[in-house]
Amino acid sequence: MMDRVGQWPTQTKNYYEDLKQEMRRVTWPSWKQVRATTTVVIISVFAFAAYFAVVDMLVGRGVSKLFDAFSK
After folding, report:
1. For residue 68, what is the DSSP state?
2. For residue 27, what is the enclosing H or E element?
3. pTM of the entire predicted model
4. Which residues have CB under 8 Å from 1's CB, separation 6+?
């Protein structure tokens, strides 16, 4: 147990060295790629929102008509 406790500074140092080494290997997207993918995400979110709004409206109307038909 004491051996493991005494090793944490070395393990922490090794972790950060490995982390720095991995971060050097990361390829970051260009600003043009970031803008393009962000635009796609925003358009997709609005498209799905519109789709689900229409489906919700249609299902809501259908359920209301069904309840009206059975409550008469």
Report:
1. H
2. none
3. 0.60
4. none
Fill in the amino acid letter for 50.
A
Q: Could you give phi then psi for residue 30, rounded to 5 degrees?
A: -75, 165
Structural domain containing residue 21: 2-71
Q: Measured between alpha carbons, how far is residue 13 from residues 2, 3, 9, 55 in Å?
A: 18, 16, 6, 55
What token pair was written down for 55?
A: 């489906």
Measured between alpha carbons, how far is 12 from 29 in angstroms, rounded to an integer?
29
How many separate domains does the chain show?
1
CB atoms inside a 10 Å sphere around CB 57: 10
Helix, strand or coil, per DSSP, at residue 28: coil
Q: How confident is the model over 50-59, as pLDDT tens digits?
A: 999 999 999 9
